[in-house]
Amino acid sequence: MDPLHDVFFWATIATATIVLEMVVFISRRKYKRIVYASAGISAIILFEVSRFVIPILPQPSLNLNPNLAKILGGMIFATGIAIMLISFVQLMKAKTEGWKLQTTGIYGIVRHPMYLGDILWALGWSIVFNALYALALTPLWLFLRYSLAVLEEEKLIEKYGGKYMRYMQKVRWRILPFLI
Questions:
Q1: Which of 106, 122, 123, 132 is 20–30 Å from 82 (CA)?
Q2: Residue 178 within a domain
């Protein structure tokens, strides 16, 4: 099979890209800003685009009613995108305030709402296309985002100290409310 039409080729690209981002992110070396920017941009492009393509590729069906799949999946997809946009707006506000730690709004529900939205859009997109393999990969995406959140929190504790630790006690859930 042509690799460009293979779900697992794209899953490998997505996974390798996010793992590369983690390696750069957790490195104790001080890279030039361009290294961090390149890792972030490649993760956005290759991780997100790969997960966008996967459900469209040939694979077994979930056997959901097509109309139900479109409605249910579309609602989950839209919710994920909305959460990401709300998170982004809050982060841009934080940037204008000198990167003030965000602890209210959507950040008062989960500590990493951008990752929550990222998981939800991919889940919804898989359902829209009735794509079994894409849906089965969702726990992998969650694991990768969860791993990145754990590593990111180490950096946030270094940056914000006790303030971030109090925030962690107040907002218990990293990504999924009431679960993790």
A1: 132
A2: no
